[in-house]
Amino acid sequence: MEAASIAAAGGPRPNLTRGRTPRSVGENIIKALLFLAALISIATTIGIVVSLLAETVEFFSQVGIFEYLLGTKWSPLAGGDQKSFGVLPLISGTLYLTALGLVVAVPLGLGSAIYLAEYASPRARRIIKPVLELLAGIPTIVLGYFALTFITPVLLQGIFGIEVKIFNALSAGLALGVLILPVVATLADDSLRAVPSSLREGAFGLGASKPQVVLRVVFPAALSGIVAGLVLAASRAIGETVVVLVAGGANANLGIDPRESFQNMAAFIAQTARGDIAAQSVEFLTIFAVGTTLFVMTLILNAISIRFVRRFQQVYE
Amino acid sequence: MSVAEVPVARAVVRGASRGARVREIIFPASLMLCIAFAMLTLVVLLLDVAVDGLPVLSWNFLTSFPSQVFPERSGIQSALVGTLLLMVVCAVFIVPVGTASAIYLEEYADGNRWWNRLIEVNIQNLAAVPSIVYGILGLAFLVRGPLELGRVVLAGALTLGLLVLPVVIIVGREAIRAVPNSIREGSMALGATLWQTIWKQILPGALPGIATGIILALSRAIGETAPLIVVGAAAFARFNPNDLTSDPFSALPIQILAWIQDPQEEFRTLAAGAILVLLILLLFMNAGAIYLRNRYEQKW
Q1: Which of A27, A100, A259, B292 is least surrounded, with the fewest CB atoms within 10 Å of its CB?
Q2: How many CA atoms lie within 13 A of B130 on its CB side?
Q3: What is the pLDDT of residues A206-216, one digit of tens each?
């Protein structure tokens, strides 16, 4: 029904064939098929929401919603009296690890982007850009291995002499930083390059030095695009599973000591899904409740990012 | 120099200009340090994996099945076969669906209709959904629930396909958009229908871009671990899956994860070996994408 009405409405370009020739019928069938393919992405979203919500509702029929949202102890897999469903330690752990990643990735990523966009020669660009793409293409399991076998024992315990546990937030946070550094750098580079060169020339004409032009004219002009990129990078770090699963450990921690073991929401889901848990038990349902929480958080972040991008586009249209 | 002297020094014109000159050197130098750090990280990471992993690599390592008892007899055959199967099935799914979606959105969709705008915003949102959530979708809809496929290759491949579909669509749309309007108009003026124009003129022109997007999407898919954990890929598969819909399967990231988390040191070096195989596979795919881009990309 919907497909047919679109077919009748016609595309953005005028339909030059007149009447219902066999040719136009064939064209409309093709258009309907293409539309169906595009609908798969809508079906995916509906599928995600339905699969999360159905079991989450079931979870909250067994666990109070305030006990979940406001509780400060997370031990759903423990036995008997030790069982507790307060999700705050998981949320704070997620945000804490993300913050550690951003502390690494924001200065390094922005510095790299400014160099790429404002200073690098075309030749240097041709070398640096693929390196960043390569770094972006490293599977996260490899970063987890790197964190566990290099960052923790060699860098933190060896070179810096910090007394960290085998699984610790610092190592996982640094690896998350490496993970999102290319995201920050690439998106910031795009926004900086979108700033019209007339702005730069105007500032130079007023006698500004290159650092002044970059920091006081180009950077502010690109800021909304840069912030949108940072928000996207943060949402990557919030949803990352394997790095935290491998290097962060399995401790839902409400504290702030980076030498301790921390877990985030995605790593909890993976750890629980791997275990032998009876389907439809309350332990199994926590996967979906935590999944919903994570999904809502990334959705909010993405909405913020899209808003920033819209504002950014308005400036130069 | 004491703190009190600083403002005085700034007030002197010559001092200030020297400060500015220093800043013109220090500022780009610190930016270069940022880049150098990023590149150094990549080098150290690759060295770390290579030093541990190279001694493990051998024909036996590629062709043996994983053992939980004897690290020296352990290998990655089932994981490698699983990853290749996942890749092929995933490609069969995302190539037609992704390309068709991109064509619809670029050539047919009227951007003023609410459903078309909904599809666009939705794809943007899907691209930012964490991969573990796709795992939950696969678990609830493909492994169990309506389709009830079980923990098989088909379920894993479709989950990965849904995960990377936004990449294919977004890159594909850019490639189609890059074909100039004059080509469309010329073809239509000669009496071709819109579909004939798309099939004979636009798709051939956009093909290198679309293929690049598909390769990038597939290389992201085979590196993903989280969704496969939730969908239930097996960590130590002692045989290859006979078909796509009945046997348990393994995959390289899953095997790597299992070995990383093994308490015995010998198994950890096996993880490094498997990582090297995965990275080499990805390297070939990316080299293929770059080759396609450089060799066939048309300048209009």
Answers
A1: A259
A2: 35
A3: 999 999 999 99
